[in-house]
Design brief:
By secondary structure, the protein is an alpha/beta fold. The chain has helices spanning 13-24, 31-41, 44-54, 61-73, 90-102, 117-125, 165-179, 181-188, 201-213, and strands at residues 2-6, 27-30, 81-84, 109-114, 127-130, 136-138, 157-158, 192-196.
């Protein structure tokens, strides 16, 4: 199964994709995580991407698309994957469609995690991320058992540079302009399902699983 998770920053794509990948034995592919790994390893790609990311802007399409296609071709992704953070605009969606078509593959489900702006800002401004396994926490909503330490792997947690309030606002602006049109793109292709992402993570994941088990046309938008 090949799934795309859409949604604004803070809608919970990373958290849901990680849980879903575990439950469905699919590979979770997050462009944000891959880019951050490149930045921390100081690769060419990381050096080119860093400034865009810190400003809350999109990294140029060609760079991200090359990275994601390589990742999809990896043997562990042949059985299916969940894309989190890609595509981020129509140009990327077209590139993805073309690349999959050449490989005789297609996307099965596109799930839009619909979250309201106050919830998004509250989530992002308190988000903490594990420096090793990319696990997500929240200062209030989902605190780690030990302050500043990841429950799963024991590594330090940090606040992302782009989770500062002014950068959050920029990222939301970019989302509305560049990424929101993807909803119409996938709606036209009759692949789009919508799930309310304001609820607690456990409720959201249950709703996603129900949807994948029994795709219900009433939530197809
Ligand atoms: P995320 O972790 O998904 O919030 O992504 C963090 C940052 O990585 C974004 O604000 C962008 O700068 C960059 N990024 C992630 N995915 C993409 C993409 N598909 N296209 C361009 N830039 C991206």
């Amino acid at each position: 199964m090949r799934i795309i998770l859409l949604g604004a920053p803070g809608a919970g794509k990373g958290t849901q994709a990680k849980t879903l990948a575990g439950k469905l034995r699919l590979v979770h592919i997050s462009t944000g995580d891959l880019l951050r790994e490149n930045v921390s390893q100081g690769t060419d790609l990381g050096r080119q991407a860093k400034d865009f990311m810190n400003k809350g802007l999109l990294v140029p399409d060609d760079l991200v698309t090359e990275m994601i296609i390589k990742r999809i071709d990896n043997s562990d992704a042949l059985g299916g994957f969940i894309l989190d953070g890609y595509p981020r605009n129509i140009k990327q969606a077209i590139s993805l469609d073309e690349s999959l078509k050449i490989r005789n593959k297609t996307i099965d489900f596109v799930i839009d995690l619909a979250a309201s702006e106050p919830v998004i800002i509250q989530r992002l401004s308190g988000r903490l991320v594990c420096s090793r396994c990319n696990g997500n926490y929240h200062i209030k909503n989902m605190p780690p058992k030990t302050t500043g330490i990841c429950d799963s792997c024991g590594s330090p947690l940090y606040q992302r540079l782009d989770d500062k309030e002014e950068t959050i606002r920029k990222r939301l602006e970019v989302y509305k302009k560049e990424s929101a049109p993807l909803i119409q793109y996938y709606r036209t292709k009759q692949k789009l399902y919508q799930v309310c992402a304001d609820d607690e993570p456990d409720v959201v994941i249950d709703n996603i699983i129900c949807l994948l088990k029994e795709p219900d046309d009433s939530v197809k938008v």
